[in-house]
Specification:
Layout lengths: L4 E7 L3 H11 L4 E5 L3 E5 L6 E5 L11 E5 L2 H10 L3 E3 L9 E6 L4
Parallel strand pairs: 1-4
Antiparallel strand pairs: 1-5, 2-3, 3-4, 5-7, 6-7
């Protein structure tokens, strides 16, 4: 698999409350997306980024990293072969689709 970008997921109680920390303290002032339970922030100066994540109601486990790749289907198959499980909750975003690695090898 070729990852185009990996983004750390910071677990927070409330995305809207925590975004001030990203903007004011970390300098990640540009909101790339906000789906309510997950939002992405980046620095216009450095390109540094982070995702703020609350509890994902569609999954039994929380993610630690978001992996962006051009070929999510191949990445998903490879992860399964290696014994990892993935949540594909953020699929469909252009140009790359996001998936989140969960768990440990089986």
């Amino acid at each position: 698999m070729r990852a185009n970008r990996n983004v750390a997921n910071l677990h927070v109680a409330d995305v809207d409350t925590a975004k001030g920390f990203c903007a004011d303290h970390l300098g990640l002032r540009t909101e790339k997306f906000n789906m309510g339970w997950v939002a992405g922030y980046t620095s216009p100066e450095t390109g540094a980024n982070i995702h703020l994540v609350t509890r994902d109601a569609t999954s039994s486990a929380d993610s630690a990293v978001s992996v962006l790749t051009e070929d999510v289907d191949s990445a998903y198959a490879e992860a399964q072969e290696l014994g990892f499980t993935w949540s594909r909750a953020s699929e469909g975003r252009s140009p790359a689709r996001a998936s989140r690695v969960r768990g440990r090898p089986r």
